[in-house]
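Appendix B, record 7
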Amino acid sequence: MSSDAPVAHSTLAAVDTALLEAVCAIPDPEIPVITLGDLGVVRGLSRRDAHVEVQITPTYCGCPATEMIRSEVLQTLHALGETSAQVRIVLSPAWSSTWISEDGRQKLRAYGIAPPGPSCGGTSIRWMDRRARSAGHDESGLRCPRCDSGEVERLSEFGSTPCKALYRCLACREPFDFFKTL
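Structure tokens (predicted):
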């Protein structure tokens, strides 16, 4: 078969599935234990003739890792023979922490980052003061990733990256990041 011969549709579909899986397996540059697929930032892959486009949605529109992610996706595609590839940033709908896979949530917890809980109807977690928590009214469900205590306090709205907040466990006294619910 010559290199100019048309490729069967089923073969292209298999190639595109493999490309998408490879892109989804790329580690997040800020949290390397979780992949772009785990985070849900990979929106899809499309092909028009020999041109491949991957759509991604950053965890927030000002994410400093966006260009690094774009570069890693392009490097992966080029290594797999897709020299006419591009990455398109899709900002609508905005990324939501509900897009994090269950496997991704477990990886975050094992890494020491409290994963976000289920979506609260599209709103962020409600922050409660210590008195409300000590009275047993902690509605956030946020738990320490180290000792699993629900007795936690927010130290800062921003943690090691803007998409995380810094907390401290009141039981084991250890600080930890919380991946914000968006």
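Remarks on this record: The radius of gyration is 20 Å. The beta strands are 42-48, 51-56, 85-89, 113-114, 152-156, 164-169, 175-179.
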